[in-house]
Specification:
2 domains; 15 strands; alpha/beta; TIM Barrel; two-stranded antiparallel sheet; 8-stranded parallel beta barrel
């Protein structure tokens, strides 16, 4: 992780005088880069979480954690999908669980394998009420007005304040875009330019619609988008990384996301969920047609815990052999790494 000097704006030199005439500087950290071999865990089920779960994540071998899922509501509040009653952000300020902030910060501490943290902004699915990307579409346009909302992407805007909290309070290195319904590329390009001003990256999480994601890539500033996470389950069950590489021709790496067994409250195969052995086999298959593939991702921590809670290894022997969360995390991480 690189550090640069933040030039202090009060003097033309960008430096200020410390006591005794010394020149003082303020250091800021660049957002963490994508690891060379990216092993990613989506973290639904971790707000506010508990210390033991975070300890398991820190020693799991996964090096990127995408905290998921977070939703923007019409009044500008942000909620976790793990808690629909209490906002995480209200009136542009963090009002969520303080223990969660400490747990998230611990992910990058010494003896942790985690190097990068992202926030997944999830949109509505089919036939759901408007949320996240409906409001980004409306609010990114500074010519529009909505009660209680400051539109546009300036420093006083509602969207800027939300993302600033995610950067400064939560410590996110990137915002992950999971839009599955609105598909307005112009508003996401505006959001991305704002995110870059906040010294963050943006990543993409598609399952369909090549054109939309290509438009975002073409319209975004160089270096902003540094990874694509491709959904290879449920609606994206037939997705193959090589097809998306051919269509998007991205300058950044693309990683397949796998749904693990235990998803959708069942030990059985559901929505294209897979065992660790099946995930490894898919990684090998994908790598053959996309030799540049350098990682993969698992959706999600809540399902991993559900697998163990339901004793899936006992209830359905075809689902795998893990009997603890730590063991299952290790098996899933290995399935990605060994498949490369």
């Amino acid at each position: 992780m690189k550090t640069y000097l933040l030039l202090f704006p009060l003097l033309a030199t960008g430096l200020f005088s410390a006591p005794g005439g010394r020149q003082a500087t303020v250091a800021i950290k660049e957002p963490a880069a994508i690891p060379d071999t990216s092993l990613t865990l989506f973290g639904r089920g971790t707000y506010p979480g508990d210390d033991s779960s975070y300890q398991l994540i820190k020693t799991s071998g996964f090096n990127t954690v995408i905290l998921s899922s977070f939703y923007i509501r019409s009044n500008g509040d942000v909620y976790s999908g793990d808690d629909n009653k209490n906002p995480v952000i209200h009136d542009g300020k963090y009002v969520g669980d303080q223990s969660w902030l400490k747990r998230v910060a611990s992910l990058k501490k010494k003896n942790s394998t985690v190097k990068r943290i992202e926030i997944l902004l999830e949109g509505r699915w089919f036939n759901q009420a408007p949320n996240t990307y409906d409001f980004i579409l409306d609010w990114a346009d500074g010519t529009k007005t909505f009660p209680g909302i400051v539109t546009g992407t300036g420093d006083n805007s509602t969207l800027y304040k939300l993302c600033k909290v995610l950067k400064e309070e939560v410590g996110a290195d990137a915002i992950c875009i999971d839009d599955e319904s609105v598909y307005n590329s112009a508003s996401i390009v505006l959001l991305g330019a704002m995110v870059k001003r906040l010294n963050m990256h943006m990543t993409l999480c598609p399952y369909k619609n090549y054109t939309y994601w290509k438009e975002i890539m073409n319209g975004s500033q160089k270096g902003l988008i540094d990874a694509i996470y491709l959904q290879c389950y449920d609606g994206g069950a037939r997705n193959v990384p090589a097809d998306w590489i051919r269509e998007l021709q991205p300058a950044m790496p693309l990683y397949p996301i796998f749904l693990c067994r235990g998803a959708f409250s069942t030990c059985a195969t559901n929505h294209n969920s897979k065992t660790p052995a099946e995930i490894k086999a898919e990684m090998i298959r994908f790598k053959k047609d996309y030799p540049g593939m350098s990682g993969g991702a698992i959706w999600q921590m809540a399902d991993i815990k559900g697998y163990v809670r339901r004793s899936c290894a006992v209830q359905d022997s075809t689902s795998g052999s893990a009997t603890s969360v730590g063991q299952y995390l290790s098996q899933l991480k290995n399935s990605l790494k060994e498949g490369l």
